Amino acid sequence: MLRFVALAVLAVLLFLILRASVYAFLGALRGQGSTSPARRRGLDELVKDPVCETYIPRRKAISRGSGPAERYFCSASCADKYVTRS
User: Fold this and answer.
1) 61, 68, 72, 76: least surrounded by Cβ within 10 Å?
2) How far apart are CA 18 and CA 50, in angstroms?
3) Angle at the Cα of 41 (from 79 to 77), degrees rounded to 5?
């Protein structure tokens, strides 16, 4: 009986692994990949705050400026400090 339960658990685990592999393979063929849409757009890229030098995700950062002069800050107080310091 114990051997049957162990074999059933092993079969279920093998099925789950195989199913996940097939879905990942088919997703890659369709061009979806395994990354989330947010990561593909670069929103989860870490940016450095020039004032306190901490790294924060771009989607949570406060941005000031535009184009190549755009800076990212962890908080409004760091953004204000940067403006007064410049």
Assistant:
1) 68
2) 47
3) 10
Distance CA 49, CA 6 (A): 53
Report helix, strand or coil for 73. Answer: strand
Q: What is the pLDDT of residue 76?
A: 92
In total, the chain counts a number of residues equal to: 86
Q: Are 47 and 58 in contact (CB under 8 A)?
A: yes
Predicted TM-score (pTM) of the model is 0.50
Kind of pairing between the strands at 55-57 and 46-48: antiparallel
Write the pLDDT tens digit of every residue in 54-80.
999 998 999 988 778 889 999 999 999
Alpha-carbon distance of 64 to 9, in angstroms, equals 55
Residue 39 identity: R
State the amino acid at position 73 in one-letter form: F
